[in-house]
Every structure is written in structure tokens, then in C-alpha cells.
Design brief:
This protein has 115 residues and is mainly α. The chain has a domain of 56 residues. It contains three helices and two strands; from the N terminus they run βαααβ. It has a two-stranded antiparallel ribbon with strand order 1-2. The longest helix has 32 residues.
């Protein structure tokens, strides 16, 4: 049997020195958790980017066309903004991590734990 190891390691919470200069939107909370997210994804060979997020105006338009009220349309726009920021900052931080600690190369990861 094989499973993907999904636990955070203690080292995942270690500060990424190259990212100290970046501000982080308030909705991401404590930097140490965002750092752990970036380190874990990178350790597992997951390339983070912002290429699949719907544009904010399109999220609002889709909600309106589906018959949702203005409150829900605004909620969708805000959720889309958070998603865009997650993609943008994840890519930025991962690029800085790769450049500073991995010689611009993604680490290899098998993802398999056998028992």
C-alpha cells in the first residue's frame, strides 16, 4: 500500500530568508503558516502558480448571470481576490525559495510511503 505523505515537518516552518522583504496580505494570517505551505509544496515537488484563477470581474458576472444577489456577487469577487493573491504570493515565495535554497531547481519527490 502506498500513500502520499501530507504532514508538515518542523523544518517547513523555518523562515525563508529571501521572503522576509515581502509583505503578505492579512487574510493569510501568520507568516509561519504560509511559509510552511510554501516549503511543504516545494518539498513535494508541487509547482505553485497563479494561472488558473478566474478574473474578479468574471466571477462577479457569472454570479449575476446565475441569478445571485449583489451580496453573493461581492462575496464571489472577494473570494476570487483571495484566490488570486494566494496564487500570486505562492508563486513569488516559491520562486524566492527555489532561487535561494535550491539553485533554481525543484527538489525531487517520490511521494510514496510504503508499508
Amino acid at each position: 500500500m502506498s500513500t502520499l505523505h501530507s504532514k508538515y515537518l518542523e523544518e517547513d516552518f523555518r523562515t525563508i530568508e529571501a521572503c522576509k522583504k515581502y509583505l503578505l496580505p492579512k487574510q493569510f494570517g501568520d507568516r509561519k503558516y504560509f511559509t510552511a505551505y510554501i516549503r511543504k509544496a516545494t518539498r513535494q515537488g508541487i509547482r505553485l502558480d497563479d494561472s488558473v484563477v478566474l478574473e474578479i470581474w468574471m466571477a462577479r458576472k457569472n454570479a449575476k448571470e446565475a441569478g445571485f444577489d449583489r451580496i453573493f456577487q461581492n462575496q464571489r469577487a472577494n473570494e476570487t481576490l483571495v484566490s488570486k493573491n494566494l496564487g500570486k504570493f505562492s508563486r513569488l515565495w516559491q520562486e524566492a525559495l527555489l532561487k535561494s535554497e535550491y539553485n533554481n531547481q525543484m527538489p525531487s519527490f517520490s511521494g510514496l510511503v510504503t508499508s
